[in-house]
Amino acid sequence: MKLGITMPSRTTDLRRIPQYAQWADEAGLDTVWSWELAKDPISQLATSSMVTQRIGLGTGLAVASNRTAASMANHAIDIDELSGGRMHLGLGPGLIPNAKPLTYMREYMDVIRLNWQYIATGEAPAYDGEFHSFKQPRYEVFERRAMVRPSIPIYLGAIGPKMLEMVGAKADGWIGSLSTPAYIEERVRPLVEQGAESAGRSMNEVDMLVQRFCIVSDDEDVAFDRARKQIGFYLLAKYSDAPAKFVGLHDEVVDLRERARTEGAAAYANISDELVRTFSIVGTPDQARAQVKEWEGVVDHLVLHIPYVPPLSAEESEDSYVNAVATFSRTGRSPLQPA
């Protein structure tokens, strides 16, 4: 199982991001991921690519509706060139016009790949979709360029049944969140497999990746306090209903939402230890390592998702990141140790 980590950038000085990526690289982790928040994930990977040697670099997620397919395709090529072929393009829909995210994302992936095909070969068929289109340029406004790879793996953030089927049919990987091993085996994997089978593909062609909240501290109480804030924020979103119902904790989620209307973030303090453990890797380093082992054989790729939401501070997020890298270092190198 590959092991990755997300870089908490919400309140962090962007000049810290390359250092975060370098720590993960030196610790022997497989991938490091940036997020589309108030800050651009592409620029974070660009700076990270210059100070890392071998670690995969991914957007987890970049919002499709914020950029044209041609722009996203070119951004991905840039990172792939800067990093020597280490880019992973993770996409999410964002605010999709006319409430047709399935059509929008299907066309978006198609047109990205047509752009890559044209850039790599000089030839690609025309494409005329409802939201996105592609035509070979009449004039070479921009010169074609060499690509490190003819194509870059596209990961799709998917929750609903139809989007999960499309992962199997068209994407190179799935990015999931708020999942448990049983939920993936019973609710996610069958739909991805169904989509793959419909397209004549093998599941070996789909990297099953889950981002799991990871909060590690030598002080177990500190870890649980940070975890409650991170998980509480995410459980306010309606997409958490399905996994919460699956594990029998939906009533607690509904109660949390009611409390949050009047108490705000203070409501997170009432989240039970059971709910925290269900949706996160949390506790001391030894406890966290034991929890990660539970994911072996469930997914291909586990990404440690570091807390970043308000009311957590930049210092708390960085401390959580440093602790996670130190806990899961495969090389003996740790941000907690001098070089």
Automatic annotation (TrEMBL):
<dbReference type="Pfam" id="PF00296">
    <property type="entry name" value="Bac_luciferase"/>
</dbReference>
<dbReference type="InterPro" id="IPR011251">
    <property type="entry name" value="Luciferase-like_dom"/>
</dbReference>
<dbReference type="InterPro" id="IPR036661">
    <property type="entry name" value="Luciferase-like_sf"/>
</dbReference>
<protein>
    <submittedName>
        <fullName>LLM class flavin-dependent oxidoreductase</fullName>
    </submittedName>
</protein>
<dbReference type="InterPro" id="IPR050564">
    <property type="entry name" value="F420-G6PD/mer"/>
</dbReference>
<keyword id="KW-0560">Oxidoreductase</keyword>
<dbReference type="GO" id="GO:0016705">
    <property type="term" value="F:oxidoreductase activity, acting on paired donors, with incorporation or reduction of molecular oxygen"/>
</dbReference>
<feature type="domain" description="Luciferase-like">
    <location>
        <begin position="6"/>
        <end position="298"/>
    </location>
</feature>
